[in-house]
Amino acid sequence: MNILAYAQTTILTEVIHVSGSQPPTDEVNGYIDYDQLVTCVEEMFSLREWVPPAIEAWLDLIRDGVTGHEYLIRYNVALMDPAQAFQWLMEARGILEQLRFRDPRTFQLILGMHPEMGDWDSNSYCLNTLLAQTRGFIDRRDPTQQPTVFEHDVTGVLTVCRNSSQHASRLLERLMVLILEFDFPGLVARLQRSFFRARLLFVFNLEATMA
Fold first, then answer.
1. What percent of the chain has pLDDT over 90?
2. Looking at beta carbons, which pairs linking 63-72 to residues 24 or more positions away fall under 8 Å?
3. pLDDT category of residue 5 using cuts at 50, 70 and 90
4. pLDDT of residue 88
5. In sequence order, what DSSP letters do the residues of the chain get, joined into one string?
6. 79-127, pLDDT tens digit by residue?
7. How far is Cα 159 from Cα 94, in angstroms, rounded to an integer?
8. What is the predicted pLDDT for the residue at 126?
9. CA 195 → CA 112, 190, 206, 209, distances in Å?
10. Domain residue spans in the chain?
11. What is the mean pLDDT of residues 134-159?
12. What pLDDT was estimated at residue 97?
């Protein structure tokens, strides 16, 4: 698991600074060549390892030309450390649970953006030991003695992550996002983009928490 995926960076200009170069520009028109900029950053990461999924998703937004995604780029989960990213993820889970009852249409809209999570609890996903332990947990007080049943969508994954952080992974909470993305790479970044597309990212007040 790659902690560089959540390296503490601030905004695009910081990445440019880290890469040791100025923003590549089109010599004729003078605008920033975002595709070339992304290539430079990818090369910077590849010198050390592979480009983590969260960073790759963030770079894709920049490659597309930035316009319309400025807020999501500036306050992206890829720029958070693992503990902050997990805090955001659990807040997102709480908001989803509220939407389930208060705004079912928006709730279904966000779930529909993650069709790949429809069979997350099938054998097609090999959950790591910590998540598998949580997924198979049996409450001794339950007379049926059956494992906990989780939703067959992205909310089920988030609940497993929450439960694991409170039990099997309670001593590793600050690394919980990395544990989750070991099996579901890029999920946190995709979920954040879903909230952005649903016009709900502002409710997280990221301007204050990532200032």
1. 32
2. 63/34, 63/35, 63/38, 64/34, 65/34, 66/12, 66/34, 69/196, 71/196, 71/201, 71/202, 72/192, 72/193, 72/196, 72/201
3. very low
4. 96
5. --GGGG----SHHHHHHHHTSPPPB-TTT--B-HHHHHHHHHHHHHTTSPPPHHHHHHHHHHHTTSTT-HHHHHT-GGGS-HHHHHHHHHHHHHHHHHHHHH-HHHHHHHHHT-GGGTTTTSTTS---HHHHHHHT---TT-TT--PPP--SSHHHHHHHHHHHHHTTTGGGGGGHHHHHHHHSTTHHHHHHHHHHHTT-GGGG-HHHHT-
6. 888 889 999 999 999 999 999 999 999 999 999 999 999 888 776 566 7
7. 10
8. 62
9. 12, 9, 13, 17
10. 3-79, 82-209
11. 79
12. 96
Q: Which of these, 57, 14, 59, 70, lies nearest to 34 by C-alpha position?
A: 59
- Name which of 188, 178, 197, 155 is nearest 76 in CA terms: 188
Tokens of 189: 């970044």
Tokens representing 14 are 């910081």
Q: Give the tokens for residue 182.
A: 């070991």
